[in-house]
Every structure is written in structure tokens, then in C-alpha cells.
Amino acid sequence: MASPRVLLRSTPTSLKPILQLRQLSSSSSSPSPSSTPPPNPKKPLTPQQQLLLSRALRVNQAGELAATLIYTAQTPPLLRREPHLKPLMKHMYDQEASHLQTFNSLIAKHRVRPTALYPLWSVLATGLGWSTAMMGREAAMACTEAVETEIGDHYNGQIRQLLEMVQGWEDEDYDVGEEFKELISTLKRIRDEELEHLDHAVEHDAKKAQPHWLLTGVIRAGCRGAIWVSERV
Ligand SMILES: [Fe+2]
Ligand SMILES: [Fe+2]
């Protein structure tokens, strides 16, 4: 596995568009009507900030792909026994599909390399979804509870890091730019929807899964590992 530093050197162009995001934004700060003062300049991203952003988009896309696959695999076995869950499963799947679409667009726009482990995550996510649904509604919901707990924490961490970046720019009187504000509000919206899935899972007996502690413990550890790897590989 290439270290992040090696990766940065070996694929210098992959991060350029994120830098361009700032340059593009600053180029829009040209002459304005005489009555309004020109906006403050935008500070270019440091290499660490570029790395943080490219990792964030890569791991988020991988995670949302996994989420759509988990629900796709869970739905048929679950609905065979519990057809009344169809609207809930569709609602959660549709939101995941929309999250995936968001990050597909963002990684394409900023030319961030997707995770190289796409095939592995696809197999694992499908297996996780299918096996928990075969165990019953409680286990399927415990899977959602575990995954969304980790994903909610993960998005919160990203939002915190981006807010710190923005605060730094504001402290130095740099313009933050609309694209960054929009990215943060997109992450907040998606985080809220993940936490809504977590609530749905608990309302549908996730805590009654047997053994709940083992199932959620294993899945949560797996998610943390997958997040760590997907940021880097
Ligand atoms: Fe999602
Ligand atoms: Fe979700």
C-alpha cells in the first residue's frame, strides 16, 4: 500500500482540481460594482488540507456505495418475512443512493481517485446486508444501528475539521467561498439523514438482536477499519 506521502508525490494532478476550487473561487473576486467593496481573497489550500479533502471525498463515496449495497442485499430477505417494512427500506435506500450520487459527482468534479478497494467493499457490504437480514429484522436493524453510529461519528469528525479550516481563514480575513460553505452544509445534511436511519433502526428493535453487543461491536469495528483503509487506499 502506498503511503499518503508517496501517493501525493506520485499523483500530483489528482489533487489539483481541489486547489483549483480555491483558485476558481478567487478568480470570481474580480471587479465589483463601485458601491460594494471587493471580497477578501481566498487562501490556497495547504498540501495537508488538500490531502484531507481528497481523503474525505474518497472515503465518503466508498461508504455510501457500501450503504446502498447493504440495503440492496437486506431488502429481499427482510421483506419476504416483514413486507410492512418496504416503505422504510425504500426510504433509507433512496437516501443512500442520493448520498452516493452526491459523492460520485464531487469526486468526479475534483478528480479525486476513488478507493482501489471498491470490489472488496462491494462484496463485504453485500455479504453483511444479506447475512444480517437472514438472521431477522432485529439483526438487520442492529446492522443499520452499528453502521450509522460509526458513519455519524465519521461525518461529525469531517465537519469539525472543515469548520476548523474555515475558522482559520476567517481569523486571517480570507474569504471562505461558497463551495466550502456548500460542502459543509451538504455533509451536515447527510450526517443528519444517517442519524435518522439510526433512529429508525432502534425504533424497529435493533437493540433486541441477539447478541446485540457482539453483532454491533463487530460491525462497528469493521466500519472503522474500512473507513481507515478507504481514506488511504
Ligand atoms: Fe448515506
Ligand atoms: Fe445511512
TrEMBL record:
Assigned GO CC terms: extrinsic component of mitochondrial inner membrane
One GO-annotated biological process of the protein: ubiquinone biosynthetic process
Membrane-related topology note: Peripheral membrane protein
Source organism, top-level taxon: Eukaryota
Pro residues bias spans: 34-44
Subcellular location as annotated: Mitochondrion inner membrane
GO molecular function terms noted in the UniProt entry: 3-demethoxyubiquinol 3-hydroxylase activity; metal ion binding; oxidoreductase activity, acting on paired donors, with incorporation or reduction of molecular oxygen, NAD(P)H as one donor, and incorporation of one atom of oxygen
Pfam families per record: COQ7
Residues engaged in binding Fe cation 1: 64, 96, 99, 194
EC number(s) from the headed UniProt entry: 1.14.99.60
Subunit structure of this chain's protein: Component of a multi-subunit COQ enzyme complex, composed of at least COQ3, COQ4, COQ5, COQ6, COQ7 and COQ9.
Family of the protein in this entry: Belongs to the COQ7 family.
Protein name: 5-demethoxyubiquinone hydroxylase, mitochondrial
Encoding gene (name): COQ7
